[in-house]
Amino acid sequence: APADQRFEQGLAKLITTLGRIFLPPTFIVLAIYAATIPANFWRPFQERDVLIVFNVLLFAVMALLIAATPLSTESTVGEGGYARYAHWAMIGVELLTALISVYALSATLYRTALAGLTMNRMTIVGWNSINIALLCVMLYRRARHGEASWVRDTQRTFSLGMILYAGWALFVVLATPWLFR
């Protein structure tokens, strides 16, 4: 039965381990991105390719956050300071990702205001809005509950996110053909 399966070994453990390994480099890359925004502020507003790179990065970071989240609170016990490290590393990544997501969303909205709404822009605005909402919910829950329940709170937020992502994907697939004839 699915409830009887062990996820502390095999592929699940490998994915979680890789997520943990990539948290620090991701934080560094996001910090560099955030630090270079003032010097290159208008590039995503003017260059579509730069905006695409921002959005791909943001989706990759969301996937990393899912991978780095332990499957249970018990799986962080006995792993040294991993629970504390992961909690704070994920807060840093979430804060920087939220900042960069708002920046990317503003560039998309700017391009939409100038050139009109297209299927691609509508889709990206929806995805970015969902990402920003999830990041804000995670940060709020961390601030409210602290380290005690961060694993459960993160899992609950990503569960909500899967519903929102599926709903948005369904909307995009079913509604855009009629909206953009």
Summarize the structure.
The protein is built from six helices and no strands.
Extended strand count: 0
- Shape descriptor reads globular
Low-confidence stretches: none
Please work out how many helical segments DSSP would assign: 6
User: How much beta, percentage-wise?
Assistant: under 5%
**Helix/sheet category:** mainly alpha
Distance between the termini: 46 Å
Provide structural commentary:
- With 181 residues, the chain is mostly helical.
- It contains six helices and no strands.
- The chain has helices at 10-36, 43-46, 48-68, 82-115, 119-145, 150-179.
- Helix 1 (10-36) packs across helix 3 (48-68), helix 1 (10-36) packs across helix 4 (82-115) and helix 3 (48-68) runs antiparallel to helix 4 (82-115).
- The radius of gyration is 18 Å and the shape is globular.
- The chain starts with 9 loop residues before the first helix and ends with a helix.
- The mean pLDDT is 89.
